[in-house]
Amino acid sequence: MSRSRSSKASAYAADPDGRLVPLGSHMRRMNSRDTKLAILMDVNVHRIIRRSTAYGAAYDPDAISEQDDETPRGLYFIFISAKAMDTLEFLQQEWINNGNFMSLGSERDPNVGLQEDGAAFTIPQEPVRRRIHGIETFNVLRGGECFFMPSLSALRWIGEGSWQASTTIS
User: Fold this and answer.
1) pLDDT digits (tens, 9 = 90+) for 154-163
2) Contact 30, 91 (CB under 8 A)
3) Which residue(s) pair with 80 in the sheet?
4) What is the rounded CA–CA span in Å between residue 41 and residue 101?
5) Bridge-partner residues for 121, per DSSP?
6) Could you write out the DSSP letters of every residue in the chain?
7) How far apart are the C-alpha atoms of 99 and 121, rounded to whole Å?
8) For a pLDDT cut of 70, what percent of the chain falls above it?
9) What confidence tens digit (pLDDT) does each residue in 115-167 have?
10) What does pLDDT average to over the chain?
11) Residues 108, 114, 119, 124: what is their CA dihedral angle, to the nearest 10 degrees?
């Protein structure tokens, strides 16, 4: 699906069965605007600004064992949200590790979900769907940090030194 960023969400409305972008795919789960949801929720409550970048060397497709390719690599992921901890918890519990909000049953996000034994991923196709069995947990969380980012008005207040006039040290 080669569409501009602004038209991706509306493309989901034109793809209600998930034949172009499967309903259970990471991209569709984490940006579910315009997707018909089985459980009523306001997707705008959990909106985030997000970016990621890769680190480490590219994967070597000729490696045949873990010992052949022990190069550390992965993704740094950052997001900004008005309620970071609540949003992260919601995204993990409801959209990543639960398929019920899109009528996917026990299927989890194939990229970042914590997979259980016998996990599957469904790709809608005609005349019969394709189901990939034996999905394993792909990502390993190595750490995380939470940072406070003050509002523009708070930065102005700090910059103007207004806090000094209201603070007395005894």
Assistant:
1) 889 888 887 7
2) yes
3) 49
4) 9
5) 132
6) ----HHHHHHHHHT-TT-SSS-TTSHHHHHT-TTSPPSS---GGGG--EEEEEEESSPP-TT--STTT-----EEEEEEE-TTHHHHHHHIIIIIIS--GGGT-TT---TTTS-PPTT-EEEE--SSS-EEEE------------------HHHHHHHHHTHHHHT----
7) 11
8) 82
9) 999 999 999 888 888 999 999 998 888 888 888 888 899 889 888 887 776 66
10) 82
11) 30
Count the residues in the chain.
Answer: 170
Beta bridge partners of 133: 120
For the chain, the straight-line distance linking the first and the last C-alpha, in angstroms and rounded, comes to: 64
What average pLDDT does the segment 89-104 reach? Answer: 86
